[in-house]
Design goal:
Number of domains: 1
Largest sheet: 6 strands, antiparallel
Number of helices: 4
CATH superfamily: Umud Fragment, subunit A
Shape: elongated
Structural class: alpha+beta
InterPro entries: LexA/Signal_pep-like_sf, Peptidase_S26, Peptidase_S26B
CATH topology: Umud Fragment, subunit A
Mean pLDDT: 86
Number of strands: 6
Helix content: 25-40%
Radius of gyration: 26 Å
Subcellular location: Membrane
EC number: 3.4.21.89
Distance between the termini: 22 Å
Low-confidence stretches: 7-12
Strand order of the largest sheet: 1-2-6-3-4-5
Organism: Streptomyces hebeiensis
CATH architecture: Ribbon
Order of helices and strands: HHEEEEEEHH
Keywords: Membrane, Transmembrane, Transmembrane helix
Length: 192
């Protein structure tokens, strides 16, 4: 070994100085806080338009709109405007004409002369067979917040184990973010 490699190896073996932050805890804390901060920001982002502007938020449940929307995404919908109906290419939230009581998020494929909409999921091979009446329009998609609704989507799909796993992962991140950065034990004296 060279003198410089002996010096580097010795530095790695030396205990941390009294009061120095534990590097593993620092990295863990930074990563945990970054993930949690990002998620908190995304949650705020999904709620501000709903509360302040009367928009609607919905969690994507199926893959019919892939790749534009994936299951677990939260989509924010602006209320429909009578002055500007949705145009071809807009993603809309409508009351599903084939399943009463359910909502459907698809893209406008065609606007008929009677203003009824023909919708289509991006991943579907053909347009939906039943036109959507203008009165069934609930909103026009304006924002997509990726993955933030994943626990809700998993729970609604009956996949409780993955949903609980995601929630336990978030709880673990929260616990890691709360760890103190310094070790509580006494550090060994540093040799000079």
């Amino acid at each position: 070994m060279t003198p410089s490699s002996d010096l580097a190896a010795g530095a790695l073996r030396q205990p941390m100085a009294e009061g120095a932050p534990n590097p593993v805890r620092v990295v863990t804390s930074v990563v945990s806080r970054t993930v949690l901060g990002t998620m908190a920001g995304l949650l705020v982002w999904t709620h501000v338009p709903v509360v302040a502007l009367g928009w609607t938020a919905g969690v994507v449940q199926s893959g019919s709109m892939r790749p534009a929307l994936t299951p677990g995404d939260v989509v924010l919908y602006q209320p429909p405007s009578r002055d500007r109906p949705p145009a071809v290419g807009h993603i809309v939230l409508v009351r599903d004409p084939t399943r009463p009581g359910r909502l459907l998020t698809h893209r406008v494929h065609q606007v008929r002369p009677d203003n009824a909409l023909i919708t289509k999921g991006d991943a579907n091979p053909a347009p939906d067979s039943t036109p959507v009446r203008p009165t069934a329009l609930q909103g026009v998609a304006r924002f997509r917040v990726p993955w933030i609704g994943l626990p809700v989507q998993l729970w609604r799909a009956g996949r409780t184990v993955p949903a609980v796993t995601v929630l336990l992962g978030l709880a673990t991140l929260l616990a890691l973010a709360a760890l103190p950065l310094h070790s509580r034990g006494r550090a060994a004296p540093v040799a000079s």
